[in-house]
């Protein structure tokens, strides 16, 4: 259901491996992904990929439909599913190291939400994205949280209200995807390796600071970012990095 490959460059490759179900986010898959993310907190960068024809088709509609047979019509199961999915998406956003989505195939509904939650994303030219819940009278309200934070408001609303497919190049122009490459997984791993070659303490501090300031009013954001810069300046790697730059030599990171 989930595989983890820890590479020599410090990159962890997490792969969704439920191809027959188009990597639909069942409760079991969400729980496995949550555990995999926890296991990879010591990595230098994480790439999230998937096996099969889809990155993820979103929630498991068969599983959700089966729950309607319960005494409460499925309400408790639906609430549990949405709460777990929301926690996993926030786990991606707040992961201590950058998470890069490698999208091969489609990413729909909660699958698109997962892509939008990642720090960076690489797609193939054939990749497509949509939030098609409106087509089955189930508005993609939780995917909207991530998508609306990744792309402009009106573009997000058009995706949500029409459910139309967005191609890779359009997704890139909107900001949902950073790069389009024939080998999305390979390109994502290459990008991750570039990040992993930097000071780990700096990357972790920088991601945390970026997330914290992004939700603050301007003045508070500058105060928060300034505090991060001061802490960063006190790190041994910053002293080494600045010294290496001024001395015109390669830095030697201590990751502290």
Automatic annotation (TrEMBL):
<protein>
    <recommendedName>
        <fullName>Enoyl-CoA hydratase domain-containing protein 3, mitochondrial</fullName>
    </recommendedName>
</protein>
<dbReference type="InterPro" id="IPR014748">
    <property type="entry name" value="Enoyl-CoA_hydra_C"/>
</dbReference>
<dbReference type="Pfam" id="PF00378">
    <property type="entry name" value="ECH_1"/>
</dbReference>
<dbReference type="InterPro" id="IPR029045">
    <property type="entry name" value="ClpP/crotonase-like_dom_sf"/>
</dbReference>
<keyword id="KW-0443">Lipid metabolism</keyword>
<dbReference type="GO" id="GO:0004300">
    <property type="term" value="F:enoyl-CoA hydratase activity"/>
</dbReference>
<comment type="similarity">
    <text>Belongs to the enoyl-CoA hydratase/isomerase family.</text>
</comment>
<dbReference type="InterPro" id="IPR001753">
    <property type="entry name" value="Enoyl-CoA_hydra/iso"/>
</dbReference>
<keyword id="KW-0276">Fatty acid metabolism</keyword>
<dbReference type="InterPro" id="IPR052377">
    <property type="entry name" value="Mitochondrial_ECH-domain"/>
</dbReference>
<comment type="function">
    <text>May play a role in fatty acid biosynthesis and insulin sensitivity.</text>
</comment>
<keyword id="KW-0809">Transit peptide</keyword>
<keyword id="KW-0456">Lyase</keyword>
């Amino acid at each position: 259901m989930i595989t983890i490959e820890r590479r020599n460059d410090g990159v962890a490759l997490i792969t969704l491996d439920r191809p027959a179900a188009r990597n639909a986010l069942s409760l079991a898959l969400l729980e496995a992904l949550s555990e995999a993310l926890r296991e990879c907190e010591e990595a230098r960068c994480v790439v999230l990929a998937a096996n099969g024809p889809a990155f993820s088709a979103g929630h498991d509609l068969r599983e959700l439909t089966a729950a309607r047979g319960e005494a409460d019509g499925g309400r408790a199961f639906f609430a549990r599913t949405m709460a777990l999915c929301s926690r996993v998406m926030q786990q991606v956003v707040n992961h201590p190291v950058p998470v890069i989505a490698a999208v091969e195939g489609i990413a729909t509904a909660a699958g698109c939400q997962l892509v939008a939650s990642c720090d960076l994303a690489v797609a193939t030219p054939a990749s497509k994205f949509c939030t098609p819940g409106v087509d089955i009278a189930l508005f993609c309200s939780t995917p909207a949280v991530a998508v609306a934070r990744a792309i402009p408001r009106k573009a997000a609303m058009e995706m949500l209200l029409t459910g139309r497919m967005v191609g890779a190049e359009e997704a890139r122009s909107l900001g949902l995807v950073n790069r389009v490459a024939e080998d999305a997984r390979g390109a994502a791993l290459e990008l991750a390796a570039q990040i992993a070659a930097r000071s780990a303490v700096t990357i972790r501090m920088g991601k945390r600071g970026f997330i914290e300031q992004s939700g603050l009013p301007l003045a508070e954001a500058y105060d928060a970012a300034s505090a991060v810069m001061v802490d960063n300046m006190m790190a041994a790697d910053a002293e080494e990095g600045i010294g290496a730059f001024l001395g015109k030599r390669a830095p030697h990171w201590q990751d502290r």
